[in-house]
Amino acid sequence: MSQAILQVEDLSKSFGGVKAVSGVSFELMENQVLGVIGPNGAGKTTLINLLTGFVRPDRGKVLFRGQNIAGMKPYKVANLGVARTFQMVKPFYQLPAFKNLVLPLKSPRAKQLTGGRYGDRDAVAKDLLEEVGFERDSWVIFKQASVLPHGYLKRLELARCIAMAADLVVLDELFSGLSLAEVASLVPVIDKLRVQGKTIIMVEHRLRELFRIADRVMVMNFGQKIAEGKPREVMEMPAVRGAYLGSEEEGA
Amino acid sequence: MARRLERLDRGIKVRSDDVFALNSWREMLYIIAPRVLPVLLLLVLGLAATPYWQRVIMQACMIGLLAISWDLLASVGMVSLGQALFFGIGAYIAGILDHYAGLGPWLTIPIATVGGAALSTLLLLPVLRLRGIYFSMVTLIMPLMIERIIEATKIFGGTEGLSGLQPMPHALVEIIAAMAVVWVALFSFNRMMSSDYGLILKGINDNDRAVMSAGLNIYLYKAQALFLAAGVGAFAGAFVTHAYQFVGMPVFALDYSILPIAGAAVGGMGTMSGPLLGCFILVPLNELLRGLGGMRTVIYAVLLVVFTVGLPEGIFHFIKRKYTQFERWVEVEQ
Description:
The complex is a heterodimer. Chain A is α/β, with parallel strands linked by helices. Chain A contains eleven helices and ten strands.
């Protein structure tokens, strides 16, 4: 087994009196896919915000390749190689789809990796869009992001992570709001990321697809990690069933 | 049978961004005319006008610069209600350098432009993190605050201001320099906004979190945009100071904050040309109505409302649409 790319220790964050994330610890090996599941309000998105610098933790460490990135500014985290998508898609609405990728391609990280020579930037952007499933020779890549359908905007989010050449990709409910067919067409894209050696954290509600992709699954409830393990095993655990279906006492 | 207005792009087909494949003089003219004609028109007006109207045109240029500066900030998501801050700081730096050190306009104006930009950026640096209305409120307060500081501490001439400053070398130099700077600012900022750098700035307006997650430091970019915009405003202040040979508290007045925004509302924001056009309409209009005394403000306000309601997109966007697209009614089946 290769070494850990991400080590999270005792990560906690409260908003007012609400413990959004409390005492979460886990480890992620290089090139693994970790699924994070849990009921609404379990703290999954806060966890992602903590990992990517958008929220400063009250306590705890996030070690990315041994370096503590907890509380670091988001752009610095991104330049270290941790890219994320947003659950509520955040494209640059005024810009055409392919121009959306100019920004990540202009980032210090992307510049450094290409030695400042990324060739024809627009062509690179179009290649990236093709990689996530935009039709290459169609008008859709020239369309303003504000008129693109939701499915394409999700792909655009993913393309931004790829453009950042991230080592750790954090996907916040990538599949939410997509049709079965759209999800099915995105699964191979994620598989490909994995083949390229990237490590992936997926927060997801679509369990069937998630279980097909993920090596391990972590279950959260009320800000705490309540279980972790192989997908099938996790779903057999009583605590997990309780969180999802209500405990036996209440549910029966 | 229902009808629907169809709009189709006119003009040049082979085109990508700003590279045009021109096939004829006609096409060349189509591209160049809207850029060159306003420049020539203003030049002729400026040279032919009486000294009084030359002053009005100069003033329109300066308010226009403030409007360009406002639009630049607005397109990065910073809506400034305090253009007077930049204007006033530039004006006072020029005034102080001239009054106490005797430097002429050729030195004070460049120093005031850069120094004013730096000082304004420093003053607003702590509030760069604020978004939307919070940023606007701080910018609104800043110039008024400085005005009171000058009044209370009686520095730099206090309420009297500094007068007897060195004038611009010649009226002709004054008007031509004013126009030249306006066009340089307009075209270079427009060019900048369509470059990659401009894309980043627009991206910050669209979605700052996405820019952060693209590994870019948005505060750095915001500070740079602020520096550029403040520099343009400070130049206008310094220029006016020497044109009127006087600098005083009124340079921080609300007028200099409101007029550029009114210009943007009338002309149409987002292109820099729109707000500039708006100022070239509003400032001379203001002068024309001067004869009406107290009723001037009322008529001015009514006109402003009419413009805003009648053409919410702004005059510039309206003209641009008519120029670049042709319209026709097509029948649609129900």
